[in-house]
Amino acid sequence: MQDILIIGGGISGITTAVEAAETGYNVTLLEKNPYLGGRVIQMNRYFPKLCPPYCGMEINLKRIRTNNKIKHYTLTEVQNITGNEGNYEVTLKINPRKVTEKCTACGECSASCPIERKDDFNLGLNTTKAVYLPHELAFPYRFVVDTKACIKCGACVEACKYGAIDLNMQAETIKLKVGSIVMATGWQPYDASKIDNLGFGKYKDVITNMMMERLAAPNGPTQGKIIRPSDQKEPKKVAFVQCAGSRDENHLPYCSAVCCLASLKQITYVRENIPDSEAFMFYIDVRTPGKYEEFYTKVKGDERVHLIKGKVASIEQDGDSLTVEAEDILSGNKLRVVVDMVVLACGMQPTNGTLNNISRDQNGFISQVQGNGIYAAGVARKPADVSSSVQDATGCALKAIQSVVRG
Amino acid sequence: MADIIKPDLSVVKQIISSGGESLKKCYQCATCSVVCKLSPDDSPFPRKEMINAQWGLKDKLVSDPDIWLCHQCGDCTAYCPRGAKPGEVIGAIRKMTIGHYAFPEFLATMVGNIKYLPLLIAFPVLFLLAVLGATGHLHIPEGEIVFGHLMPHTIIDAVFVPVFMFAAIVFAGGVLRFWKNIHGQCNGKCSFASIIPALISVKLEILAHNRFRKCEVNKGRAIAHMGVLYGFIGLAITTALAVFYLYILDRHSPYPLNSPLKIIGNISAIALLVGITLMVINRFKVKAQAGIGSYFDWLFIWVIYTVVLSGILSEVTRLLGIAMIAYPIYFLHLVSVFFLFFYAPYSKLAHMVYRTIAMVYARKAGRD
């Protein structure tokens, strides 16, 4: 009998899993990607300490590895949930990785594979082969076959010295009985191409904040060099456009809670990487609550960082550069800033699902139904930063345990 | 030292109740000022108007020429992240401004509120009935249909010339006060001598609808407005011709359909009808993005409809020889024309005057 099911293997799901398991409960952790770590593992650094995500993540992964009360599944989705608090039956679909535990991650398979696919871990900034390692520090550290891209040519099967590739591996369905369920399904970046006046998808050098994380990450597509997608040149002037689709009835009506700090953090990437660079951050309000105020003050103190109150409502390409237009509200005049690159601070949209037992608010975040033993942790519940998500997830572990005890 | 702001809640309520109900949703992001293709670079609109309206700063609002540079394209409303509908709010501010400059102000209050509509209609109806009664014309005339038999031109002139003069005087008073208010912001560039050439170039721009064509969301608006404007200009020319025919040539109506007066008049009426219909269609088409407009807007639309339809129908029923219908419809036509002119300084029609003045100012002050 598994006691608690946790859906989503990002920072919130992992936290709930290890916290509950370390109090003695059996937990099952599911992740639909081929690796654990969720969105956090895609980040270059956390704010405000600016340490890399492996900081916290490595310890957590170790806690998972060394605790036999945690069972984790990657490439797994929930198909159905029936029952009630204390007595749930869950149907899981485990998608085929097509690479077995024999894999040593030597990379011979990738080298032999003729097919390229967009690297979704790097938000499409580069490509990988159809058999690939999701990222440098993936857990589990094992290759995976993209079943949609693979043409089953068999080159990788031949190349693998360990016989670790099985292209005929099929999806499996299993059933689990659990007492309570924690939804830690997290978020996806808002689709910036829906914001028709900001030029994403039209101009190559208009990128999103998640793309910026990958550009700045040492294990990213450019090994941490911040360059323009159009011509691989270093951008000297970078504009950060806040509330790109957030706090906007036409897109996401809510504040995503992290984008101001994320942009301030990314300004430090630009300023550190490119010493003669200049950053312009256009905002409606800068929201850096509590102790984060210090971080805001620190970034603002850099004389090559310009914070402008006024939302960008037009971006146009002009030859080699981009013209960003806003009304500078403090002066009351229109401002056109010519920059080399634009970063859209896109908000967080809750990952949607089709499970009918889950109740959601008008924005798609999961809301608690009293007494049903299904909980939500982290961004699945509301927009939040990493440290709030971790706190939320820890609290959620207790809720989930209470349901098991009651059940 | 910053100005001390004195918020006026009654002004806020007035704007909210006259079509600006979304006003309070604005959170000052200034998306509107940027997406507006008509807004100048220096102190653009409508973001500053939104905050002035939220604080109820009536003095600033009524002396703000920018509210007239706005053509209510609705681009700001479409892109507004809060559903604050700046286009609709600015429309409500214009309504308040028209009321502010009109005299007596209670007439403006009445024009702006649907509950007074029966009273507003009753006035010209009863007045014109009284005129018919006093002149012994309170019946359907016998014989061939000649509208002069119901109300001879001398009586028409005796009624409508004073109505027109009344409107002109009220407008003149409003314009003088408005100009006095905006003149100070012109930095000495608005000398009297330079106004005339500016006025001419603005008139040419209005005829060409250059500013109007910059609308993005509501692209059809310029064409529709052109139909209405040219329709009215054509009808004004028709009226002038009618005066010429009557008093110079001594030719009395009805005129044959092939007379220049009739041709111009009929084409103008059709242009007006097509224009106003396109305007209604456009409003419904962009309702979701740009807003449907307020009672103040719609009253004006319905008055134009009544004028043009009663005009066309009285001509048609006259030509068909149906006296029982032709004369009552002609009476309705007279009522609607009376309504249009008499209430003009208090209605949306006043935009014609204030917008022109504001555009002259904008041209002189380099804001267009």
UniProtKB/TrEMBL annotation, chain A:
GO terms for molecular function: 4 iron, 4 sulfur cluster binding; metal ion binding; oxidoreductase activity. It comes from the Bacteria. Residues 94-124, 141-170 form the 4Fe-4S ferredoxin-type domain. The keyword Protein biosynthesis does not apply. The keyword Iron applies. It holds the Pfam family DAO. Keywords: 4Fe-4S, FAD, Flavoprotein, Iron, Iron-sulfur, Metal-binding, Oxidoreductase. Its cofactor is FAD. InterPro entries: 4Fe4S_Fe-S-bd, 4Fe4S_Fe_S_CS, FAD-dep_OxRdtase, FAD/NAD-bd_sf, HdrA-like. Belongs to the HdrA family. This is Heterodisulfide reductase subunit A.
UniProtKB/TrEMBL annotation, chain B:
The keyword 4Fe-4S applies. Pfam families: Fer4_8 (PF13183). Residues 59-90 form the 4Fe-4S ferredoxin-type domain. The keyword Repeat does not apply. Keywords: 4Fe-4S, Iron, Iron-sulfur, Membrane, Metal-binding, Oxidoreductase, Transmembrane, Transmembrane helix. InterPro entries: 4Fe4S_Fe-S-bd, 4Fe4S_Fe_S_CS, HdrC_iron-sulfur_subunit, Helical_ferredxn, NarG-like_sf. The chain crosses the membrane at residues 116-138, 158-179, 228-248, 263-282, 294-313, 319-344. GO terms for cellular component: plasma membrane. This is 4Fe-4S ferredoxin-type domain-containing protein.
